[in-house]
Amino acid sequence: MITNPVRKALIERKVTFGTWIQLPYAGIAEILANAGYEWIAADCEHADIDMKEFIELARGMHGRGAMPLVRVRENDTLAIRRMLDGGAEGVIVPLVNTAEQARTAVAAAKYPPLGIRGYCFSRMNNYGEDFDQYAKEANDNIAVVVMIESKKAVENIDKILAVDGVDGVLIGPYDMSGSYGIPGQTSHPDISAACKAVIDACCRAGKSAGLHIVKVSPKAIQEALDAGFTFIVLGADVVFLSEAAGNVLKTARSILEPQK
Prior knowledge:
Blueprint: H1 5-12, E1 16-21, H2 26-35, E2 39-43, H3 51-61, E3 67-71, H4 77-85, E4 90-93, H5 99-109, H6 131-141, E5 143-148, H7 151-155, H8 157-161, E6 168-171, H9 173-179, H10 189-205, E7 208-213, H11 218-227, E8 231-236, H12 237-256
Parallel strand pairs: 1-2, 1-8, 2-3, 3-4, 4-5, 5-6, 6-7, 7-8
Helix pairs in contact: 2-3, 4-5
């Protein structure tokens, strides 16, 4: 039985909102969780977050309703296994371009006979206190999302989605634009067509399509929903901090200007 609400939403293709956390401070995880995000993914690919720091972030989320996910640094068996042992409820795996790479990711996240994840006493099973229960339920509850970030991945999307254990995909718009030779042009017709191809493939496979909306706006969110995306990343802690700090200063200066 699936008790992980994020994996359940992925399988049922229901809308779920989460965000990235790139600053390794538990207080930020607490703030984001208190804001109501359904899941928060620690970004170990592009940020300086190791296993110890992820565990502190997960402790910050604990009891606040947000499920701790991790974007691992690479599609590496040990990288995936270690974060799951640290208490991650799912992994987001970057740069998956082929079905074979998708199978590698799934195998790392699943215990035998479905995969090659190693058994141990660690945080995920309360250091062995809940070993039997966790071992019995983990394969049903750990979510596996693979990132589609290249032209090659788009070309292989049907084969990637056919891999048992892949619950959904997440498009990396900036990396994808780079692979098409138009870096940063995430609204380019070629990228829009690639996104549509991924969404259509997810519909055929009955799996969730995800998108990172870096600059969040009502228009961007509505467009993502209308397009068929359900696993949606909203901004990131660093984006929120930068935008809020800039907006507050802009407001203060606008008030000061007329007084000069």
